[in-house]
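User: Here's a chain of 349 residues. Predict its fold as tokens.
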Amino acid sequence: MSNSFDFASNPHTRINILTGEKVLVSPHRNKRPWQGQTEEVSAAQRPTYDEQCYLCPGNVRADGATNPDYEASFVFVNDFSALLSDTELTKVDDDNLLIAATEKGICKVISFTPRHDLTLPEMSTEAIKAVVDLWQNEFMELAEKEWIRYIQIFENKGSIMGCSNPHPHGQIWAQSSIPVEIAKETLQQEKYYQNTGETLLSAYARKEITREERVVIENDHFLVVVPFWASWPYEMLVISKRPVQHITQFTEDEKTALAITLKELTIRYDNIFKTSFPYSAGMHQAPVNTTPSPAWHWHMHFYPPLLRSASVKKFMVGYEMLANPQRDITPEYAAEVLRSQSTIHYKHG
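Assistant: Prediction complete.
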């Protein structure tokens, strides 16, 4: 790699190899004083059970259904689904100017634990492993429906990320077409695989392990890095060392390792600012019920918004919305901060 400029001080652009898009890095701006909006810091402690929460065991949800007295994780079809399974698939095309198509899908909610007061970093490895098992089972069940083309597993954590309920939970949206980000990643990965016979993320993971500067966690089965092209301040990318296409291909050892990895990753997040660290996170996997793609390599994105403290958020506005993403702290600095965090949660240290 060329050292003709200083990554730590010179403005520069980097390429996101998964999408082909640019990000602008402006490390010198990190010295500017902050006079913008600050966010309210979430309460440090919630009750173990909240009678008003529609995800707690035994409570009545918005549609009138009653949750079972579940003891591990629990899944149900979203009471306010963005996609509906009984939608008829039709298209509209008015002179190539007004183009639309109906979208069919299934949206599910997964309550990670009956405990209202816990989040992933405070759950046991065994409890997180139960969530991984549920992700795997739900993916297999949804993929059996021939009309489904893509299954998105994700979590929005924290009100700052639009999460409407603090009870620890995630979502699964399965739909009849392939979303924009997945289409971009498919193109980039297939291009690399056709040229080299190796998955793009296998080569990238090997490069990051060699360089070390952006690696946060490494174990036998997973690598966690602040990607070279990261847009969000403390963005992280989880890559399976074995190039599988779907979570259904993970072995028991790999699922346990994923649970351990997710616990450590989220503990490191919480420890940065001694707060329940918000983020949007989700797996990217190969489309289903279509031509198999050995180029696809399972990975998981974490996009957290906090920048300078528990109350200062990175906003994607202006230049980011009109041109391309921009960040102030370098990915290398973010990785150093994350590596320096304890793997014991700050509440228990």
